[in-house]
Amino acid sequence: MRVLLAEDDPLLGDGLRTGLRQLGFLVDWVRDGMAAESELRAHPYAAAVLDLGLPLKDGMDLLASIRRAGITLPVLVLTARDALPDRIRGLDVGADDYVVKPVDMNELAARLRALVRRAHGQAQDCLTAQDVVLDPAARSVLQAGVPVPLSAREFDLLHTLLLNTGRVLSREQLEQHLYSWGQEVESNAVEVHVHHLRRKLGSALIQTVRGVGYVVTREQPRA
Fold first, then answer.
1. Where in the sequence is the domain holding 71, given as residue range(s)?
2. Residue 102 is part of a domain; what is its CATH number?
3. What is the rounded CA–CA span in Å between residue 35 and residue 21?
4. Residue 222 domain flag
5. Number of structural domains, the chain?
6. I want to staple 122 with a disulfide (CB 3.0 to 4.6 A). Which of 117, 172, 187, 214 is the partner?
7. 17 with 96, same domain?
């Protein structure tokens, strides 16, 4: 799951990025509001973690700007501003969650997973399709009740497809969800990961829509 972190404090930002990466997130870190807005307009992040006291463009102004632009990704405000009027304004402007620093990393990760799940219309913590169950918190996958070991990239690809069950995603869209800054993307990387998933989970789960991309359907397609 690829998220944008907007935090100008170098020590805190580095700690948040490291902690979220250890919990399975892909994290791009920017240190000012203008850079954050540019990234959010250019890339389809799963969610954003936003400090309010950002240089160049305040977090509240940034939040209002992206909402006016129709950018609907979940935004978790993480800030030292703990006054009730600030919390109310942040939520009214368009924040999906508002957390006061300091925050436990496991709680932050859980809140992000919940925001992303709700943004995709998923009510349960685990994602299911056909006989496959994926647990984002435990980063585990079961098929017919049997654990299936996946690499980190295979898990992230399956997670993205299950979040978008019934929706066809192109190779380019999947690449944007699977790779953060500085990670080299080979031309056939998505195809290779799909091949490995099919080998481990069977060919029925991930369908190819020729010339468009890949899709997971909730029920197994009829032969």
1. 2-119
2. 3.40.50.2300
3. 21
4. no
5. 2
6. 117
7. yes
Q: Are both 27 and 93 inside the same structural domain?
A: yes
- The last residue of one of the domains, among 119, 144, 166, is 119
* Spatial separation of the C-alpha atoms in residues 43 and 30, rounded to whole Å: 13
Q: What tokens were used for 222? A: 């009829």
- H-type helices in the chain, by residue range? 10-22, 33-42, 59-68, 84-93, 105-119, 152-163, 171-178, 189-201
- Please work out, in degrees rounded to the nearest 5, the angle formed at the alpha carbon of residue 126 by the alpha carbons of 120 and 130: 90
C-alpha distances out from residue 126 to 140, 141, 156, 162, Å: 10, 10, 14, 10
Each residue's pLDDT, cut to its tens digit, for the chain (223 residues) gives 899 999 999 999 999 999 999 999 999 999 999 999 999 999 889 999 999 999 999 999 999 999 999 999 999 999 888 888 888 988 999 999 999 988 999 999 999 999 999 998 888 889 999 999 999 999 999 999 999 999 999 999 999 999 999 999 999 999 888 877 666 666 788 999 999 999 999 999 999 999 899 999 877 766 5
pTM of the model: 0.89
Contact criterion met (CB below 8 Å) for 11 and 31:
no
Q: Are residues 112 and 134 in the same domain?
A: no
Q: Which amino acid is at 221?
A: P
